Amino acid sequence: MPSRPAPRWLRLGATAVAAVVVAEAAAWLLRPREVIEPVQVDEGAYFSPQELEAARDYRSGQRLIMIGNLVAEGAVLVLLAAGRPAPARRALESLGERPVLGGAAAAAGLFGVVAVVTLPFGIAAHERSVDVGLSTQGIADWMADWGKATAISAVFAAGIGTGALALMRRFGERWWIPGSAAVVAVAAVFTWLAPVVLAPLFNKFERLGEGEAREDALELADRAGVDVGEVYRVDASRRSTAINAYVGGIGSTKRVVLYDTLLEELDRGERRSVIAHELGHVKDHDIRRGLLFIAVSTPLALIFATALARELARRRGAELGQPAFLPAIALAVAVSSFAVSVAGNQLSREVEARADTFALELTDDPRGFVELQQKLAGRNLADPDPPHALHFLFGTHPTTVERIGIALAWKNGRDQDPSSASRPGASSP
């Protein structure tokens, strides 16, 4: 007697498990190996009770807003994927008469609806940032930025949505093959263009002028053997008092970007630690590592998303490749992306820990590194030791206490190494 095929939902569950396993395996294989295990740190030894209370009061409220935003976004997608309300269903069905333009309009409209529904959560988060002095923007300026970002994102959504539907019509169930290649290509092009096309729409970037900070950046880059590209100063203070830096771009657009608040408010040791950390990302090609993670994890994630979307759309007769199919595939992609992002965040935390280790090795200044972590947490109102479950799901960096623990562990290892006595500039936290 021939065996019966497994039920659809059983196959769907197996695909979901496979997608998560592949993402976890990719994170494990791509993780940097030279990461120091942090020692245990008592947050009370580095932060006052008042600082801890202020950080936790602010961050707990922001977390609730973030969760509310996710629930609202999910609710909108569920309602539209289920064919409710009826006017939205009829509008999507009518767009099927012109699949290309209809797909673009449906994708942009879907993004716009989600953006409007979640806007109150963004306003609430902004107003709380203003109340504690983190945001320097008034609500009018913030709304102008929101409108600009939403318009740009809607254009991207239109292109991605109609492109995905075109691949579905052309390749059917196997659309995930060219779709995966397209995801990686779009991610690479976006990474390449964002620093020179998108970021300047929101901030002013200037090459870091002659001075101590530039000299330190070039000297550290030379010692590390890193082609830094260029070092830029960004006028972040027009929006926030937060202190930060980042690496962006690939190839000809590669750059290290330093907030003007960082340049103005950190002392030299703290600033050198930041620059060295960012150079660590360049040295280890971490942007390429992220693109490779996307390339490995995307295929099974798209297979799962397609199967889930077919189940969601089955009840209302939405066909693969039609604009009416977009809410279902958008919801399914959101689900699969969240699952894959958990593994991606694990990889990110390992990458950031390795960059911390690189900074300690390059500067030989654990004291400056620890003081930097204290100042970053204090100024940014970061919870030094957030709830473990939330950090596991959403955290992209080690916690502040973990980063301090990395510095202490590195110092302990250096102090036990007789050759460390010959290193210039050795200091202790």
Please explain how this structure is put together:
The chain has 429 residues and is mainly alpha-helical. The protein has helices spanning 8-30, 49-81, 86-95, 99-131, 139-171, 176-198, 212-224, 260-265, 268-283, 286-314, 326-363, 366-380, 388-394, 400-415; strands spanning 205-207, 231-234, 245-248, 255-259. The longest helix is centred in the C-terminal third of the chain and has 38 residues, at 326-363. It starts with 7 loop residues before the first helix and ends in a 14-residue tail after the last helix. The model is unreliable at 421-428 (pLDDT under 50).
The protein's oligomeric status is single chain
> How far apart, in Å, are the first and last alpha carbons?
73 Å
Taken together, the total number of domains comes to 1
Using only C-alpha atoms, the radius of gyration works out to 24 Å
Global mean pLDDT: 89
SSE run: HHHHHHEHEEEHHHHHHH
Globally, the shape reads globular
Counting H and I runs of at least 4 residues, what is the number of helices? 14
Strand content: under 5%
Structural class, from helix and strand content? mainly alpha
Query: What helical percentage do the residues reach?
Result: 55-70%
Instruction: Give the low-pLDDT segments.
Output: 421-428
What is the number of strand segments? 4
Strand arrangement across the biggest beta sheet: 1-2-4-3
- How many strands, what sense, and barrel or not for the largest sheet? 4 strands, mixed
